[in-house]
Specification:
By secondary structure, this protein is of the alpha/beta class. Helix content is 43%, strand content 15%. The two termini are 21 Å apart.
């Protein structure tokens, strides 16, 4: 929260949300899509519970966390704000198998299933708790060494076994694009969509969710088929210039 205080920050959040939704609508129109097909996930990993509450009041309903311990802190803190009882939290960051117990049953969607081993751990924990986790397979479409996730061929090879797990429901795919390269970002997003289409046709599963697009590239992601954009700085940082 910046120096303008709570009232000023709340006004910023509401105004910025309107600007983001307008950008999403424009990108959807360019692609002949309905903007209602695109969900806006506010990545709250760098802010506190008070800021999340203000974002809720501004109209945000879904939030993303990238660390299990921060997710737990947000969930505990949100209990102090009864009006946030319907808030959705997703896990979007790298998840280690030994942290699965902190996530399963506490989030609406796990975006970052990056290996068959992790999917198996999520399923085991879910089976023990009697819950099924909705998940996305994270795919490293660009092949960057710094990014985690299945290779496209790895996703093809692992899909059937993951679909067979008893307490995991694969809802689609997730990817991150290279930073500061809009042409490369478009190739990643279109490649993710094409891979989803291929896997859906092969498996007979709809796989409707494509989680891609962040602060710098979300309009391109929407043009290429994204159904969830994950925005952090754009939502919460008043110094971020929305291009």
């Amino acid at each position: 929260m910046d120096g303008t205080g709570e009232e000023g920050y709340a006004a910023f959040l509401a105004e910025r949300r309107g600007e983001i939704l307008q950008r999403i609508a424009e990108a959807a129109a360019r692609a002949g899509r309905d903007p209602a097909e695109v969900a806006l996930l506010a990545v709250s990993k760098t802010v506190g519970v008070a800021e999340v509450d203000l974002a809720w009041r501004a109209g945000y309903r879904a939030f993303g966390e990238n660390r299990p311990q921060e997710l737990a802190r947000k969930l505990k803190g949100a209990a102090a704000y009864p009006e946030m009882a319907g808030a959705r939290f997703d896990m979007i960051g790298n998840l280690q198998t030994n942290k699965v117990r902190e996530v399963v049953g506490n989030v609406a969607l796990i975006h970052s299933v990056s290996s068959a081993r992790l999917a198996e751990a999520i399923s085991r924990r879910g089976a023990a708790r009697g819950v099924t986790s909705d998940v996305l397979l994270e795919v490293n479409v660009s092949g960057e060494q710094s990014k985690s996730g299945f290779s496209p061929d790895g996703a093809r090879a692992a899909l059937d076994a993951i679909l067979a797990l008893p307490a995991v429901s694969v809802r689609g795919l997730m990817a991150m694009a290279p930073a500061h390269d809009m042409d490369a970002a478009r190739r990643v997003f279109s490649g993710l969509r094409e891979l989803r289409d291929e896997l859906a046709a092969r498996s007979g599963m709809a796989l409707p969710v494509l989680s891609c697009g962040m602060s710098d590239d979300f309009p391109i992601a929407v043009e290429e088929g994204s159904t969830i954009v994950r925005l952090g700085r754009t939502v919460f940082d008043p110094s971020y210039v929305l291009g």
